[in-house]
Design a protein that fits this description.
Blueprint lengths: L3 H24 L6 H7 L4 H7 L3 H24 L5 H15 L3 H14 L2 H25 L8 H21 L3 H17 L15 H10 L1
Helix pairs in contact: 1-2, 1-4, 1-6, 4-5, 4-6, 4-7, 5-9, 7-8, 8-9
Length: about 220
């Protein structure tokens, strides 16, 4: 059985993370103080330091919270029953829409590379976004929807395109317009990697027909 102390400790930590997400989203990392985070969570600064070593550790917890929320949402979409291609495209479109969310834009796209450092940020993205993308690409290749190219290479290139698209949306003067353009473009890129289905009843010409055409040429 869980102890009340453990439940209280986890609820306290979550309250601090929720407070941090809201304040980092509104004011950014530099504009947010630990005093403000603790005050908004109705906790003491001592309670904050009990769970986090400092401001950066709190930011990373906020980053993990935001990423986990949206990746779980996207995971449900791409793993839903149905046609693999349709669910994958639905997940792709959903990711582009996630890039319009204020918390995702500010914390994951704008602030994280600076606060966490490029290497640490990329490592975290590998765990969240890239992992989901790679598993989706693997399903599409296995099911015969995508051409037989190396899964790792395709995943890396598409991940780079999605990351660039996310930055484009977050930095645009009109994010919604940029989102529509990114969505249309990235879907078209992925469609270019799709195996062209052969219509029912249509196949390769018989061997004798091929030879006859060759002799006529």
């Amino acid at each position: 059985m869980r102890s009340r102390r453990l439940d209280y400790s986890e609820s306290t930590r979550q309250a601090l993370v929720d407070s941090a997400v809201e304040l980092f989203t509104k004011r950014g990392y530099a504009g947010t103080s630990l005093d403000e985070v603790a005050k908004r969570a109705r906790l003491t600064k001592g309670a904050l330091y009990h769970h986090f070593s400092g401001k950066q550790a709190l930011f990373e917890a906020a980053f993990d919270s935001v990423e986990t929320k949206f990746i779980e949402k996207l995971g449900e979409i791409v793993s839903a029953p149905g046609d693999p291609w349709e669910t994958a495209i639905a997940g792709l479109r959903a990711y582009v829409r996630v890039c319009l969310e204020p918390a995702y834009q500010r914390i994951v796209i704008h602030e994280a590379p600076v606060v966490m450092g490029w290497e640490r940020w990329r490592e975290a993205e590998e765990h969240f976004s890239y992992g989901l993308l790679r598993s989706t690409i693997e399903v599409l290749v296995t099911s015969g929807e995508l051409v037989q190219l190396p899964v790792e290479t395709m995943s890396r290139l598409l991940f780079g395109a999605l990351s660039a698209g996310a930055s484009t949306i977050a930095g645009a003067s009109d994010p919604r317009k940029a989102s529509a353009e990114v969505e249309r473009t990235i879907v078209r890129v992925v469609e270019g990697l799709r195996v062209t289905p052969v219509p029912a009843g249509v196949g390769a010409p018989p061997v004798e027909e091929k030879r006859s055409r060759s002799r006529r040429r």
